[in-house]
Amino acid sequence: MEVLEILAIVVIAVLLIIFFYYVPFMLWINAQVSGVRISLVQLFLMRIRKVPPTLIVNCLIEAHKAGLQDVKRDGLEAHYLAGGHIQRVVHALVSANKANIQLPFQMATAIDLAGRDVFEAVQMSVNPKVIDTPPVTAVAKDGIQLIAKARVTVRANIRQLVGGAGEDTVLARVGEGIVSSIGSAESHKSVLENPDSISKLVLSKGLDAGTAFEILSIDIADIDVGKNIGAQLQIDQADADKNIAQAKAEERRAMAIASEQEMKAKAQEARAKVIEAEALVPQAMADAFRNGNLGIMDYYRMQNMQADTKMRETIARPEDKTSAKKK
Asked: What average pLDDT does the chain have?
C-alpha cells in the first residue's frame, strides 16, 4: 500500500507540474490583476504554439499600463513567430507615446523586422546623435590642401527607417559636400576665415534625402592646412616636360648619329668607286698607247696638268702651307 501511495503521489505531482506548465494559472491571475483580459485557454494554446506566455503577458501588461490600445495579443504572437523582438517593440512604443511621437504598432514591427533597433531609433528621435566624420581632404582653387573634420547632428526619421540609408551614407554625403564646398572656394584663406560657410553650403544641399536620419546641423570641428598641391602639380608637370624634352633631344641625337654614319658609309662607297676608277686609268692609257690614240707628248702634257692641279690645291690649303714652312 505504501508503494502504491507513493506512486500515486508521484503521478499526481507530475500531472500537476504538466498542468501548471501548459496552463500557467499564476500568470493568468497576474494578467487579470493588471487589467489584461486573457483566458487560460489562450495561455494553454500559446504553449502549444511554442510561444512563451510569460513574455506575451508581460508585454501586454506594459502596453496596457502605458495606455497603448493597438497592441494586441495576436500581433505580439505573430511578431514573435516572425523572429521579432516584442519587448524591444513594446519599449519603443511606450517611449514614443510618452514623447508624443507617432509610431503605430505595424510600423514598429516593420522596423524591427527590417533589422533596425526601433527602441534606439525612438531614443535618437528624442535625443539627437552626434556623428564625427573622418578627416576630409579637399583642395581649394589656389591649390592649397585643407583637411577638415565635421560633427553631424542627426535625428532618427521614423518614417524612413524602413528602406532608408544608414550612417555611412550620411557621412559619405557630408564628406562629398565638404569637398565640393572647399573646392569651389577661390582661396584657402577664405575657408579658414569663415568655416561656417562650409556648414551652410553643405546643409543646404538636403543630404538627408532617402536616409533614415534628419540632419539637424553640420559643424566644422577642425580645419588643418595640408600640402601645396598646386605647386606640387606644377613641379610634376615641369619634370614631365623636362623628361619629354630630354627624350626628344636623345631622339634627335640618335637620328643625327645615324645620319652621320650613313653619310660616312656613302663617302666610303664613293671613295671606293673613285679608287676603282683610278685603277682603270693606267689600263686605259696603256690601251690608248697600244692603239695609237695617245702620244708621248699628250702623256707629258697630262702629267704637267696634274702637277699644276696639285700645286693649286696646295696653295689653296693654308694649313698645308703653314706646315710646309715649319718643315
From this structure: 82
224 C-beta neighbours (distance < 10 Å), count: 12
CB atoms near residue 201 (< 10 Å): 17
Give CA separation, 215 vs 70, 176, 205, 256, in Å.
31, 15, 11, 69
C-alpha cell at 124: 535618437
User: Residue 227 CA to chain centroid, in angstroms?
Assistant: 21
Residues forming a β-bridge with 130 = 153
Residue type at position 215: I
The single-letter DSSP state of residue 211 is B
**Separation between Cα atoms, residue 94 and residue 64, nearest integer Å:** 10
Query: Per residue in 107-119, pLDDT tens?
Result: 889 888 888 888 8
pTM: 0.57
Instruction: Tell me the three state secondary structure of residue 221.
Output: strand
Q: Where does the chain have alpha helices with state H?
A: 2-22, 25-34, 40-48, 53-66, 73-81, 86-98, 105-113, 118-126, 167-183, 188-193, 196-203, 229-291, 296-316, 318-326
In this predicted structure, what is the pLDDT of residue 325?
Answer: 52
How far is residue 89's CA from residue 84's CA, in Å, rounded to a whole number? 8
